[in-house]
Amino acid sequence: MTLGWSPRPLPPPLAMSPAGETPTSTSTATSTTTMTNESTPSPIPVHGPPNTTPAAQRPHPKPGYPTCKLRFECRDLTHEGADIFLSTNKVAEDFLAAVRTVLSILYKPSQSNSHIPGTRSVTLILEAMEGVAYTTGSELDDDHKEIHFSLDYILDIPTEPPSRRKDEIQGVLVHEMVHCWQWNGHGTAPGGLIEGIADFVRLKAGLSPPHWKKEKKDNWDGGYQHTGYFLDWIECNYGKGSVRRVNEALMNKRYDEEAFWMGLFGKQVKELWDEYCKTMPQDVALDNKKDQKEPEDGVMVEKDGQKTKDQLEKVLE
Q1: Which residue, of 14, 68, 80, 185, has the fewest CB within 10 Å?
Q2: pTM across the whole model
Q3: Nearest C-alpha neighbor of 145 from the set 135, 157, 133
Q4: Contact between residue 214 and residue 279 where contact means Cβ atoms under 8 Å apart
C-alpha cells in the first residue's frame, strides 16, 4: 500500500539586488533606531529649570511655641467648689488657652525656642486649702510643674456679674501658669518682681479683677498687681516688649538691681518708679490697703503640715 506524501512549500525567495548594487539598509536602520528610542529610556535624567530664588527669599516654616503635656486632678469631687469649676470652665480648652496666653506675652517663638524654659508638663490640682493658689515643681523634677488651686477660694468667688467666676478662675490660672514658664535670675530675682510679671501678664490678657487698682507705695517691688501696673507703665512708655526683655534678662544672669535696670532702660528702678508715681492722682494714699477686699493671687496661709508661699516659690530658684 502506497502512502501519499506532499513536500512542504519553500519560503519565498529573498529579494536580490541587481548585480553591482549594494543593498541599502537605510529603512532597516531607521526602524531599528526608532524602536531603540521608544523601548529603551535615556540614561540621562531630564531635569526642570534650576531654582534661581535666593535661599534667604525662600519660604521657611513659621516658628511656633513649645508644647507640654497638660494634666488635671481633682482631689475632692464632692466639694461644691469642684462642681463650680467643672460647670464654669472647659478644662482642656481653658488650660491650653492659659499656656498660649503666657507664651505669647512673654516670648517670641524661634526655630529652636532655646530662650523659653523647657517645661515638660503642667498638672492642675484642685484641692481644699486656704489661700488661693500656688505653683511648685513636681516630685519627678522641676521641669514638671504643679498648680494647686483652692476649691474653697473657688466656692467664694462672687457670682455677679455672671462672668465673674469664669474670669477669676482663668485669671488665677494665667497668673500661676506664668510661674511655669518665666525666668528668675537663678533664684535671685525679687519675689515682688516675679509676682509682678505674673500679674502683668494677667492684666494684658484682660483678666484683671474688679478690686485691682494702681497704688502709690514706698517700694516698686510690692508684688502682684501693685508691681504689675508699674510694669505695664514701663511697657507703655519704654516700648512694646519691655517686660519681655525684663523676663529674658533673668534667664542667664543673677539679679543685680543696679546693673539690671540700667542695662535695660538706662535708669535706676527707683527713677522709673518715681516717674510712674507722678502719673497717678495726688489723692492716692501711700500704702492704702483698707480697700483691698480680696486676697492676692498665690498668697498662702501657713498652717501645720503645709508649706508657706515663700517655701513653695523655691520652684522658681
Answers
A1: 14
A2: 0.73
A3: 135
A4: no
User: SS in 3 state form for the chain?
Assistant: CCCCCCCCCCCCCCCCCCCCCCCCCHHHHHHHHHHHHHHCCCCCCCCCCCCCCCHHHCCCCCCCCCCCEEEEEECCCCCHHHHHHHHHCCHHHHHHHHHHHHHHHHCCCCCCCCCCCCCCEEEEEEECCCCCEEEEECCCCCCEEEEEEEHHHHHCCCCCCCCHHHHHHHHHHHHHHHHHHCCCCCCCCCHHHHHHHHHHHHHHCCCCCCCCCCCECCCCCCCHHHHHHHHHHHHHHCCCCHHHHHHHHCCCCCCCHHHHHHHHHCCCHHHHHHHHHCCCCCCCCECCCCCCCCCCCCCCCCCCCCCCHHHHHHHHC
Percent of the chain with pLDDT over 90: 64
Q: How is residue 264 written as a grid cell?
A: 535695660
pLDDT-derived band at 300 (thresholds 50, 70, 90) equals very low
